[in-house]
Design brief:
Blueprint (H helix, E strand, L loop, with lengths): L4 E5 L6 H6 L3 H18 L14 H20 L6 E4 L4 H7 L5 H18 L8 E7 L3 H9 L6 E8 L2 E7 H14 L3 E5 L11 H11 L11 E2 L6 E2 L2 H13 L4 H10 L4 E4 L5 H6 L7 E3 L1 H10 L6
Parallel strand pairs: 1-2, 1-9, 9-10
Antiparallel strand pairs: 3-5, 3-6, 4-5, 7-8
Helix pairs in contact: 2-3, 2-5, 3-4, 3-5, 4-5, 5-8, 8-9
Length: about 300
């Protein structure tokens, strides 16, 4: 069932309580188990108390737990990917799905990266990092805004699709570009709840230190190939994986090109291995002859076909 699929792991920003209640009984139980394991590893409480996202370590690990549990649910049902991809910080979940790292290793990597981000962005205090999304302008139009505001210290961090562009940089500049985008004709602009300038040159030192850490970290070759969001190369070997993990922090990425690459490789279904449907929404505006399915839709198809995971 659903052969010729790619699994897509969403990044951070999930409303956890809503997400949890959307899961089947068995997956809910696994989420609880993974939360418990993560709390032992990190020595902190990651149980959500409200339906918000605050870009802290606990939020990132919660997102990872949810993604891993959903991935496991798909595998139990015999649904496996031809390719995998991780949206931004969803890379860790994708590597778990690809059997390159186990659950504990993923928690350790997320924790280490977050610690390095905290250390290396102290100099930004007072003008901390920020990100935002611009809907309704093309990447070319957003780049023109950036070129006309060189002092804003903002970059295009990610191109979601032809109508959605993510910017990242220093907080004052991000706010400035979002306002100008709205004045220029953007249909919608929104600040993303993060305090680090992900996917920009401002995290180059983090990338260097993370790469040093990764050189001695045990990572296995992938059982399912990963499509790089940085350059859309097909990744399977451990050295390539370590390079992608490091570059993912400070390199501009393109989700649009990543999906287009997998479509060229013949993928029929893009399955979101995360609660919610953020990647499905992005995919609707990509010119590919493929079907995007979120977790709820996959489970409904499974139930209709006569299987059960409830």
């Amino acid at each position: 069932m659903l052969s010729n699929s790619a699994f897509l792991a969403a990044g951070t920003g999930i409303d956890y309580i809503t997400a949890y209640h959307s899961l089947d009984r068995e997956t809910k139980a696994e989420v609880h188990e993974l939360f418990e394991r993560a709390m032992v590893i990190t020595n902190q409480n990651i149980t959500p108390t409200e339906n918000t996202f605050n870009d802290n370590l606990a939020d990132q690990i919660r997102n990872y737990c949810l993604n891993c549990a959903i991935s496991n649910a798909f595998f139990r049902l015999g649904i496996t990917p031809r390719y995998i991809a991780g949206y931004s910080m969803g890379l860790y979940s994708a590597l778990y799905t690809g059997r390159s790292i186990d659950f504990t290793a993923g928690v350790s990597l997320i924790s280490k990266a977050f610690h390095l981000l905290d250390i290396h962005t102290e100099h930004l205090k007072g003008n901390q990092g920020a990100m935002g999304v611009i809907i309704g302008l093309s990447a070319v139009e957003v780049n023109e805004l950036l070129q006309s505001n060189p002092d804003a210290q903002v970059e295009i961090a990610n191109v979601n699709n032809q109508y959605s562009v993510v910017i990242s940089g220093l907080e004052i500049g991000v706010g400035q570009i979002l306002r100008q985008a709205a004045e220029t004709g953007a249909l919608h602009t929104n600040r993303i709840k993060v305090s680090f300038p992900y996917h920009t040159k401002y995290l180059t030192e983090v990338t260097q230190d993370f790469a040093s850490f990764l050189s001695g970290f045990p990572i296995k070759d992938l059982e399912y190939p990963l499509i790089s969001t940085v350059d859309q190369s097909i990744i399977t070997a451990a050295p390539q994986i370590k390079k992608e993990l490091a570059l993912n922090l400070s390199s501009n990425i393109s989700w649009q090109n990543t999906i287009l690459k997998m479509a060229e490789l013949g993928i029929t279904y893009f399955i979101e291995q995360s609660p919610g449907n953020s990647l499905e929404k992005i995919g609707k505006y990509l010119k590919v002859n493929c079907q995007f399915l979120n977790h709820q839709k996959v489970m409904a198809m499974v139930e209709k076909a006569g299987y059960s995971n409830a």
